[in-house]
Specification:
This protein has a single domain (5-114), classed as Metal Binding Protein, Guanine Nucleotide Exchange Factor, Chain A, CATH 2.170.150.40. The chain is globular and about 40 Å long. It starts with a strand and ends with a strand. The chain has no helices and ten strands. With 115 residues, it is mainly β. Helices cover 0% and strands 54% of the residues. The strands form two sheets. The protein has a seven-stranded antiparallel sheet with strand order 1-4-5-9-8-7-6, with no helix packed on it. The protein has strands spanning 5-9, 14-18, 21-26, 30-34, 40-44, 53-62, 66-74, 79-86, 100-103, 110-114. Residues 15-105 form the DUF427 domain.
Length: 115
């Protein structure tokens, strides 16, 4: 694992809400901290209502994490484009986040919270 990336089990129960719907609730979420950046919560796919997520064509690559695949969130009123991502084949040392999805929280439309 890269020295400045730390992954640990996130304490408590975590939830994701978008468009008035709960998309995920998990007691098995992971917290990833990269350097001085804010922590990012990764949810196991098994704890996500995947019917709300639609894979997109967007792909990015991080030398520290691997290739990221993106998902749009389908809400009642609109589609939130490329609002979540997953490292489906992470680089060596990052395998704990395989089969997990993280969500952008920079907009007012998606909330990731500890409950």
């Amino acid at each position: 694992m890269v020295d400045h990336i730390k992954i640990r089990k996130a304490d408590g129960t975590w939830t994701v809400r978008a468009g008035g719907a709960v998309l995920a609730e998990s007691m098995n979420a992971l917290e990833l901290v990269e350097g001085d950046s804010a922590p990012v919560i990764y949810f196991p796919r098994t704890d996500i209502a995947m019917a709300f997520l639609e894979p997109t064509e967007e792909l990015t690559r991080s030398p520290r994490m691997g290739a990221a695949r993106y998902f749009s969130i389908e809400t009642k009123s609109r589609t939130l484009e490329n609002a979540a991502w997953s490292y489906e084949a992470p680089v060596e040392g990052m395998d704990r986040i395989k089969d997990h999805i993280a969500f952008y929280t920079s907009s007012d439309e998606i909330a990731v919270e500890r409950i």
